[in-house]
Amino acid sequence: MDKQAFVYDQQQDVYYCPAGEPVPFSYKETIKVQGQSVERRAYQCRTCRDCPLGSRCRTDPNAKNGRRVRHDQFELHRERHRHRMRDSTVEERYKARLHYGETQFAFIKQWMNLRQFLLRGIDKVRQEWLWSCTAYNLKKLMALWGEICAWNGENEKETVG
Questions:
Q1: pTM over cut 0.90
Q2: Which of 40, 44, 55, 124 sits CB 3.0–4.6 Å from 119 for a disulfide?
Q3: Angle in degrees, CA 27, 20, 15, rounded to 5
């Protein structure tokens, strides 16, 4: 069963499982995600052993410990985004934007490994961003140049032969 089946009560700081049992806070840990420290809270159920949904909720229904649910400091933002994406008009807007507007940023983040700036200060960050954009544009120009050269080579073969 996915974590989405669990309901979080922020005021009591407790999750509720699909069977309605509370899953209280157990511990917190700090993990590194893409070089950034993220605080993650873990909630663990204590009544899973006799639960009728245990076989669907847990990978090992006979495990000694109950089901564990975790969330980090960004969970509320992700949930708000999931809720917003349920609207069909918003989903259509994102689909339209997905390729055209996001491809360049995805390339710069993934292939050029620019997930955070190395320099500090707005002028230095602006310069670092401009260098990244220049590198991206040069890559596109080289690909286009390769296509033009290949096309010219094919035309030369047709006129010669």
A1: no
A2: 124
A3: 25
